[in-house]
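hey m, so remember when u said the tokens were messed up on ur end? i reran from scratch. heres the input so u can diff it against urs
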Amino acid sequence: MPPVRMITRMSTMVMILIMTTTMTATIIITTTVTGITVTPMLMTTNSVGPPAAEMTEAEAAALYRLMTWLSPAFPVGGFSYSSGIEWAVEASDITDAASLKDWLATMLTDGSGFCDGVFLAHAHRAVAADDDRALRQVAELAAAFVPSRERQLETTTQGRAFIEIARAAWDCDGLSQAIARCDGAIVYPVAVGIVSAAHGIPLEPALHAFLHGLVSNWISAGSRLIPLGQTDSQRVLAALEPAVSETAKRAIAAKLDDLGSATFRADLAGLRHETQYTRLFRS
């Protein structure tokens, strides 16, 4: 491919753009007193790729709603709960970013994070299938599947707030009927599963967004208690990304018989927090 020449003289400047179907070349001509300077330039080619895929209207609406519902700004009161992290800091189980990351990774993969993900998935499927019996069973089991009084307070209070705000600002056909079918307390992950299914939001993004919000709230509590700076907090969140993704996959594939946890120290932290002398959080 032959080079394009740039001819330079000093005084006036004219730009000529030569277009072909396969290449674009530019010649810049200026005037000088001493003569003409010719400088070779490489040609550049225009390659137009396939148009970027656009989100559908339903996908855009789902993303908007998940970002709103599971944002720290959504008023469910998540900022006032630490899920036992406050006692873990008091007992020096958590002292820095590394120990916080390890503690949260275990809670997520082998503790309440995984269990909440399973409850959300089964509640979502029950609403999507219009299965009243399955929804009641999931709601009752999830309400009973908590190891301490403060943990019960945390998940039921947030679940009630999520339901009330969703009905007030984001109501949709079938939402009130699905809520009525539970006939009792609705814990937070079940509430998110019900509302996202009623709005037609697919299970996988709803579950990923829920687990991300859960981990973010834990990190927020840890950053205030240790304390941590904003950068270290973001490093912890980034380090937990693979664990969030893997936990979501496991929760989607899990049956209710697969429920279980092995985070005894975290469960004890929740129990001991109830009698902790000084505390900032409600759990």
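this time it looks ok to me. Confidence is low (pLDDT under 50) at residues 1-34. if urs says something different then somethings off w ur setup not the seq
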